[in-house]
């Protein structure tokens, strides 16, 4: 989860988030190199007083500053397109979770089981372990399993976001969107509604508890 003063990403809890972090580092490396080079050139131009009035054109220089930026854009575009298609990839899922946004809480349905559904409200301040992030009913899902998450809304626009999983999908009334989720390890992951949906928009946290398959089966059996 994010903490005060945290400047980096949260630890990736899914292969998708790890790929997003890798792409960010890749892009930032290129951007820093460009910034340093351009700053050096500007500094040299400002501090250098030599002039050549006979230079009207420079084919080599123009070729250089056309080809090199094009290559840099390709180095950024190809990984970006790969990641874009990876985010939209929906493989055969082993489990389906349906998330419905309301003003101002979430409700969840486990479509593969009978009568496994519940509403998830934010806990009062006195009962919260993490302020504005804890809920009375957490999502429980097994890690290492391909999961399909169906997302919709019952009233207004919402957005189901889980930063440590690299997921953010709009919840639109009358429409069902879907994302795929695969968790790397057990743990507790936090998210929030990321679309302004009214007065209590800030009080719609999402808590995902990642457990082993055996623990998940026991949880479903005891529900």
From TrEMBL:
<comment type="function">
    <text>Component of the cytochrome c oxidase, the last enzyme in the mitochondrial electron transport chain which drives oxidative phosphorylation. The respiratory chain contains 3 multisubunit complexes succinate dehydrogenase (complex II, CII), ubiquinol-cytochrome c oxidoreductase (cytochrome b-c1 complex, complex III, CIII) and cytochrome c oxidase (complex IV, CIV), that cooperate to transfer electrons derived from NADH and succinate to molecular oxygen, creating an electrochemical gradient over the inner membrane that drives transmembrane transport and the ATP synthase.</text>
</comment>
<feature type="domain" description="Cytochrome oxidase subunit II transmembrane region profile">
    <location>
        <begin position="1"/>
        <end position="91"/>
    </location>
</feature>
<comment type="similarity">
    <text>Belongs to the cytochrome c oxidase subunit 2 family.</text>
</comment>
<dbReference type="GO" id="GO:0004129">
    <property type="term" value="F:cytochrome-c oxidase activity"/>
</dbReference>
<dbReference type="InterPro" id="IPR011759">
    <property type="entry name" value="Cyt_c_oxidase_su2_TM_dom"/>
</dbReference>
<dbReference type="InterPro" id="IPR002429">
    <property type="entry name" value="CcO_II-like_C"/>
</dbReference>
<dbReference type="GO" id="GO:0005743">
    <property type="term" value="C:mitochondrial inner membrane"/>
</dbReference>
<feature type="transmembrane region" description="Helical">
    <location>
        <begin position="30"/>
        <end position="51"/>
    </location>
</feature>
<dbReference type="GO" id="GO:0016491">
    <property type="term" value="F:oxidoreductase activity"/>
</dbReference>
<keyword id="KW-0460">Magnesium</keyword>
<keyword id="KW-0249">Electron transport</keyword>
<keyword id="KW-0496">Mitochondrion</keyword>
<dbReference type="InterPro" id="IPR036257">
    <property type="entry name" value="Cyt_c_oxidase_su2_TM_sf"/>
</dbReference>
<dbReference type="InterPro" id="IPR014222">
    <property type="entry name" value="Cyt_c_oxidase_su2"/>
</dbReference>
<dbReference type="Pfam" id="PF00116">
    <property type="entry name" value="COX2"/>
</dbReference>
<comment type="subunit">
    <text>Component of the cytochrome c oxidase (complex IV, CIV), a multisubunit enzyme composed of a catalytic core of 3 subunits and several supernumerary subunits. The complex exists as a monomer or a dimer and forms supercomplexes (SCs) in the inner mitochondrial membrane with ubiquinol-cytochrome c oxidoreductase (cytochrome b-c1 complex, complex III, CIII).</text>
</comment>
<keyword id="KW-0812">Transmembrane</keyword>
<dbReference type="GO" id="GO:0042773">
    <property type="term" value="P:ATP synthesis coupled electron transport"/>
</dbReference>
<keyword id="KW-0679">Respiratory chain</keyword>
<dbReference type="Pfam" id="PF02790">
    <property type="entry name" value="COX2_TM"/>
</dbReference>
<keyword id="KW-0479">Metal-binding</keyword>
<dbReference type="InterPro" id="IPR034210">
    <property type="entry name" value="CcO_II_C"/>
</dbReference>
<protein>
    <recommendedName>
        <fullName>Cytochrome c oxidase subunit 2</fullName>
    </recommendedName>
</protein>
<keyword id="KW-0813">Transport</keyword>
<dbReference type="InterPro" id="IPR008972">
    <property type="entry name" value="Cupredoxin"/>
</dbReference>
<keyword id="KW-1133">Transmembrane helix</keyword>
<keyword id="KW-0186">Copper</keyword>
<feature type="domain" description="Cytochrome oxidase subunit II copper A binding">
    <location>
        <begin position="92"/>
        <end position="222"/>
    </location>
</feature>
<keyword id="KW-0472">Membrane</keyword>
<keyword id="KW-1278">Translocase</keyword>
<dbReference type="InterPro" id="IPR001505">
    <property type="entry name" value="Copper_CuA"/>
</dbReference>
<dbReference type="GO" id="GO:0005507">
    <property type="term" value="F:copper ion binding"/>
</dbReference>
<feature type="transmembrane region" description="Helical">
    <location>
        <begin position="63"/>
        <end position="85"/>
    </location>
</feature>
<keyword id="KW-0999">Mitochondrion inner membrane</keyword>
<dbReference type="InterPro" id="IPR045187">
    <property type="entry name" value="CcO_II"/>
</dbReference>
């Amino acid at each position: 989860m994010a903490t005060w003063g945290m400047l980096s990403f949260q630890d990736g809890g899914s292969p998708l988030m790890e790929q997003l972090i890798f792409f960010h580092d890749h892009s930032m490396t290129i951007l820093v190199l460009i910034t340093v080079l351009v700053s050096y050139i500007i500094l040299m131009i400002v501090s250098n007083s030599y002039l050549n009035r006979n230079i009207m054109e420079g084919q080599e220089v123009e070729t250089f500053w056309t080809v090199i930026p094009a290559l840099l854009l390709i180095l950024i575009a190809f990984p970006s397109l790969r990641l874009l298609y990876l985010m939209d990839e929906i493989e055969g899922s082993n489990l389906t979770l349906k998330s419905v946004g309301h003003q101002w809480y979430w409700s969840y349905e486990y479509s593969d089981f009978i009568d496994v559904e519940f509403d998830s409200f934010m806990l009062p301040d006195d009962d919260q372990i993490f302020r504005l992030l804890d809920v009375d009913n957490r999502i429980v899902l097994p890690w290492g399993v391909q999961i399909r998450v169906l997302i919709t809304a019952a009233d207004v626009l919402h957005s189901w976001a889980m930063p440590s999983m690299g997921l953010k999908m709009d919840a639109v009334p009358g429409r069902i969107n879907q994302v795929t989720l695969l968790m790397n390890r057990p743990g507790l992951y936090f998210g929030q509604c990321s679309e302004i949906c009214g007065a209590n928009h800030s009080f719609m946290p999402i808590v995902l508890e990642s457990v082993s398959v055996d623990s998940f089966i026991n949880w479903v059996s005891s529900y």
